[in-house]
Structure prediction request, 134 residues.
Amino acid sequence: MNEQLRDRILRRLETLSDERGIQVLDYVEFLESKYAERSSPTNIFARITDTVQDTMRAGKLPLEAISGTVGFFDGASKVMRGVASAASAVVDEASRTAGELAKSASAPSPKSPASAPSDAAAAPSDPPAPDATG
Prediction:
């Protein structure tokens, strides 16, 4: 769907009551089941939220209860995305640190044969000759 059409639909939806919004959602889901080019969301929380909302609507629960429950699930979804993001960052940092440690362990020691001082340079020069006077 192009952006202009989506914006126009959203403007119209904003003026509707929640009850009319539910009717629009029902119609959109009907059209989706009949003509959809894309599959439903694969996000587990989106699927759970949709299922719970559909079950509550089928049970004819009050709209306020449905809205509150869906809001709760959306909040939980955001928290879980944050946890997943933090866990991913920890794993990435651990992998990077492990890679750096592996590189430093396999690197040659700081004293390589080319940079080590030679024995002649390290040894003191010939001892001074004994003093003839003493």
